[in-house]
Amino acid sequence: MFITLEGPEGSGKTSHIPYLVEYLREKGYTIFPTREPGGTSIGEQVREVLHSLKNTEMHARTETLLYQAARAQFVEQVVRPRLARGEIVLSDRYADSTIAYQGYGHQQDLEQVRALVKYATGGLVPDLTVLLDVDVEMGLKRKKKADEWNRLDAYTVEFHQRVRSGYLEMVKQEPGRWVVVDAGKAWEIVQGELKNVVLEKIQKA
Ligand code: TMP
Description:
Distance between the termini: 8 Å
Strand content: 5-15%
Radius of gyration: 16 Å
Structural class: alpha/beta
CATH superfamily: P-loop containing nucleotide triphosphate hydrolases
Number of helices: 8
Order of helices and strands: EHEHHEHHEHHEH
Strand order of the largest sheet: 2-3-1-4-5
Largest sheet: 5 strands, parallel
Oligomer: single chain
Bound molecules: thymidine-5'-phosphate
Shape: globular
């Protein structure tokens, strides 16, 4: 089973994953946590280029293509082999981040971006995607405080508003795959809801 976590900046995804993983392992599941962009040696190198605060001249199309390059490697090297062995792969971001950030955020042609994503993933779609939804200004504040600022965080608040609206639009378009968790709530409450949503999906499979 392939599960992905998505969300605007500062939604807290990354802080929740280790606890979610431990919880599922205690229940006896084989779970492989990973992240995008990255998860492979090639992907981590591409991540460096994408996130470096030095690369301010990067065009939106370059950015879109670099994410797909990292993703193609990720799907082939990490995700498909583990799914084939019956493992649960849990990824901190995946293809929907491209639709949200490069598609909605940068206002690139959505059909073209979707086609690129399909090419990069070979059509691999998650079984479940959890959106940790958070108010944009609250999220950006959290991220700045945590000292995890990257090149994309420095885009305008309007960019990040479009990202969030894009996610909510995707939820509407594919309600069977997405579950929304309100990440504006207290951390423990968000963690509890996340565990319930993921466990329910795994038990139903
Ligand atoms: P984070 O998950 O550590 O916040 O960093 C990932 C950053 O990369 C975040 O700003 C979102 C961005 N991103 C995209 O813009 N497109 C993508 O396809 C992916 C995977 C990430």
